[in-house]
User: Which sequence fits this backbone?
């Protein structure tokens, strides 16, 4: 119902694909945290199309912070990030206004907004709108790291190839910085190569492909989240499903619980050198909605980019007649790679929100 | 961070397993809707343990509405439902205070609340707390039905058995009332029998088992939900993941998107007798966060009930020594069946909230 | 738009004058605070009609806490207070349904709720609904006192009599406990006697009278509140104007600023033994929306109770003809005295909410 | 606790006095309303210093809308307004960092933000931040007018001069457009001249002066607002007290209720040609928190601008020694005139929010 997310910490997201700027206001961040524009640029560069088989839209991802930061630190006032839109080719989309693109928001939006929404480039529904979210990630992720909390992801499944899943690994001992820095993160390099090849083939045929991204948050203290409505899972899922193209989410063993028994899947307790821990982590670090001190991890299902150049069936909504549609714009054959910094930004945001909820703001 | 859910319509949930009452306040429902206590009783009865292989705790599920209803109709004031707790056996749980039960909230809650939370019967974390949510469902579901919106579910997967999935079926033509009225809803009866047998075997061995529930909402008008933060998926997932034991959620084809191509998975448009529709429904009725007029459906992964009588490893948190734990209380070998009215209640709540958001309150 | 107030800390208020219970859910209070039922009873007794010239409705103000408190401490779960309604005489009000009482909510509510609201005893609009708020005050006020924060009030103006105003007094050195414990608090006893006499005269004539209450909060640390939207004044006024009968609110010098100059009204700074302070406190302890460490104080204007037995002009809404109305029920000639614990409860609630906002919850 | 205001409709306010832009995001406005930039410019021009005895800071109040408007209409997406800051003279303020200005937020903010807030030009606390609010008014006021709802104000009291109060006037028959279009609105022209002269005298002496503004909203349908927490008064007061310099607010007869009787102050009902109305309007159009169809009106107390050039006492916070402070910047001797469009913008915002609450968004 709104373009504002969060409780203590909020993001207000605004802009359309072909407007002058898109952007976000991050409100509620305590004063005194270092804000490094390099870190924001780094996150935005992870989201940038690499060119190879990805959209040819040149996204420079210049940005400016116009409020809330003074002498390199958060001031406690809302932080506003503006990202200019450039290289916008409205003509590519003009003809689509009456012909909704399959699996896009065109048709649903038309009915919702009675034809008043800005259709250029997907308008408010464009994937462009994830850029300000990634910029917010560039603010929050370094703050979390300064508290010992780290996020990383890998492409778990794509085109029939399966990377080593996080479940079963000791995530705190994993070389996660190589995942963080990889342009196409997989644990198993060979699997990564096969996936990339699959994407190139799909691109060549004018088609697109989906995949699964797995993300971990390590170092989260026990005690964040609440029973029921504001469970860590509820808040994370709210944020993750707000990313276009996400159609599934599972925590820990997730959908793998369906065939298992309590006696084998319950995470049993043990005492280690420094702390109580669980010998397995099927619950993905969350019990009863509250972090238990173990690594949190979850998988997100990403659908194939709906925009493809292959012909598809649609409908001319004026004439009410069937039409064939081939979308000529610049498209990604797979956004699985580019969606990773978006997922991490949203996960970082939720973690920070819960952190402030527990520990206060001043 | 809170025990209040929703935007226009809110539920405030309260109570503990062994207090005098548990209950909920439903606020924001427009005045003038018929409220039928029989419908609430019917929903509560769906959640009741059947006895056969399920918890022996006798839950009469008496309830009373103490505000917001006058002469059989909603008044526009908050509706408060109280459900008395009876047959509470605190002694069963007393010994657990220092020995956290695996995969329960005990350990995380202890750290969060510094030992001040009410541990009796699981306290605020008890599955009992889903009863008020089901009662709320008993208020909202008939209202939605009066608007032509229907919810139904089936047990999709359990113990290696797979029921016919919703994807591919014409849900509007399905005999869904038989699913609504079945104590153990499956589309394929034989699969249902096998699942029941599997549960009985697990119960006999003092163990528990998980499963997957699939839920549909038909008749939802196009245009509910928003891009990004308050997408229909975000709001539904927030509510569904607030149900204890849910660890995964997928919309439409969900995790099945990972190996598919845009050209085969995009839902293409066609014109039928009365309206524009999509020939497939891989997106589960939602595009760009907004309902598109097709049936909405989603699957929820339910983990095995953590409480089992089989011995498990835990830790004595005072002595910091390992202990073996066998939980003697009354437990469900599978809550998959009993969780269905909870899932439907939450889905109905979110749909109603979006309905009021679109169409107003007065 | 809702019956939920607050941000980090929330009150959900429910019930009607003639239902089984009225009550409130207080959510978001951190675990581990002592909750003393005696303190709640004490606050409720301050709100009770004294009989002398006040409503004859016997309000025993029994209450029970049914959740969120365990072994005398907050558990971190929502605290639910139920107050039973007794001695409800519905007949007194039945005839009013079609004849709206002047200055009551009857007419506005009829239009808002299309005739579905519960009219018995004023329903959701009854002054009874302030009792759960006062009970919440009984929980929060002792917690604030344990942090060195104290609230107190006096009747500043009534019937042409003026008590010594707070502005100009050293509130931290005032004998405020005598105000807290007085059934009819004024600084000047003689003024208090005159006011009481005025009320008795008004009561004898079947009429009612208004007044002004002034309230102070001392010991509030500097730094609570925010610029603009969540200024301390904004949050306090939101809560105070939610009390029926309040029609005006001013902070510090308030409406007295209209004729003054910056040079005489600006609160200038000085250094005392232990801290920076201001030599005057025209701003009532708040600058730019943020507490500045000086006492916070404000005045609330209370209108005369609308229910009087003197004949008044109304309208028969069915026949659309003028009628004369004399309200026979049990009424207060002045709620100025009884509204004090309500004002203090709301002020304590807002202060606690801001406290948790600044210092966290866990 | 946040820079986001509203429930269905929200404003996110951002920016600092000396940043590149200040601005606001208006979210939740339904699609399809005409947005006229001229109307926004007109509102901003009402807030502009007139030069004569007012601040010499040249505020061009250029603005741009960068999202949410397409082809002259609201799209349903968030509307973002950017207002560039120009003519910012940081040096004027630099020396104040350690010397808090009396009655400004400097001292409170320093403690709240631990010295990290942006102090240039008052930073986030600058009166500049009211410009985006006025721009929001320029969007909403014409929409309300298209629904038959009109807002207007006059300067009720200043420097000992009193304009004709709204109470007692037939506001629907008043020539309110002349108030709307006057640069210094009073009902009595002579009073207006005297007030202006008083301001000029105060300006000449390097001082400042307060005043009272009275505002009316006519044409509001009965039924907006709720009992208790979201009463029309609560929501309006929350918004009005978020405007810097407002220290008092009263509805209808407001603080005048203190000496009156129910029998004379209750608003009695009568039947007119077209509708039920009240013969007096002491309640200012609101009963039980809900609009009753009569004109809504309220008075706001505005304190003297704290920034004056006359010497004042302050404290050097580093040396902890007293200092004398004369503020050399560009200041208004009275913001009473310039605050009117801010008050009207906030009142329009709240009314629109309640309107959407009642009648929906789609």
Assistant:
């Amino acid at each position: 119902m709104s373009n504002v997310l969060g409780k203590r910490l909020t993001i207000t997201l605004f802009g359309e694909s072909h407007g002058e700027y898109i952007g976000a206001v991050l409100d509620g961040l305590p004063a005194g945290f270092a804000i490094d524009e390099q870190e924001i640029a780094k996150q935005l560069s992870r989201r940038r199309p690499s060119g190879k088989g990805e959209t040819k839209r040149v996204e420079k991802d210049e940005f400016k912070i116009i409020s809330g930061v003074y002498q390199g630190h958060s001031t406690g006032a809302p932080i506003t990030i503006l990202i200019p839109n450039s290289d916008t080719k409205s003509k590519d989309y003009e003809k689509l206004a009456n012909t909704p693109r399959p699996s896009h928001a065109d048709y649903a939006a038309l009915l919702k907004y009675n034809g008043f929404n800005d259709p250029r480039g997907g308008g408010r529904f464009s994937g462009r709108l994830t850029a300000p979210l990634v910029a917010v990630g560039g603010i929050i992720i370094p703050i979390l790291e300064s508290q010992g909390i780290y996020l990383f992801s890998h492409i778990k499944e794509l085109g029939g190839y399966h990377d080593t899943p996080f479940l079963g690994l000791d995530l705190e001992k994993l070389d996660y910085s190589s995942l963080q820095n990889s342009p196409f993160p997989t644990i198993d390099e060979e699997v990564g190569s096969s996936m990339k090849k699959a994407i190139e083939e799909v691109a060549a045929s004018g088609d697109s492909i989906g995949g699964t991204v797995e993300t971990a948050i390590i170092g989260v203290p026990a005690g964040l989240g609440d029973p029921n409505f504001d469970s860590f899972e509820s808040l994370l899922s709210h944020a993750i499903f707000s990313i276009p193209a996400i159609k599934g989410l599972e925590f820990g063993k997730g959908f793998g619980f369906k065939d298992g028994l309590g006696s084998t899947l319950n995470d049993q307790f043990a005492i280690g050198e420094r702390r109580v821990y669980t010998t397995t982590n099927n619950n993905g670090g969350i019990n009863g909605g509250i972090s238990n001190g173990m690594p949190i991890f979850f998988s997100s299902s990403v659908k194939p980019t709906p925009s493809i150049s292959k012909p598809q069936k649609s409908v001319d909504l004026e004439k009410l007649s069937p039409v064939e549609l081939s979308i000529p714009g610049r498209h990604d054959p797979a956004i699985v790679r580019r969606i990773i910094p978006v997922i991490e930004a949203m996960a970082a945001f939720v973690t920070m929100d819960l952190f402030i909820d527990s520990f206060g703001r001043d």
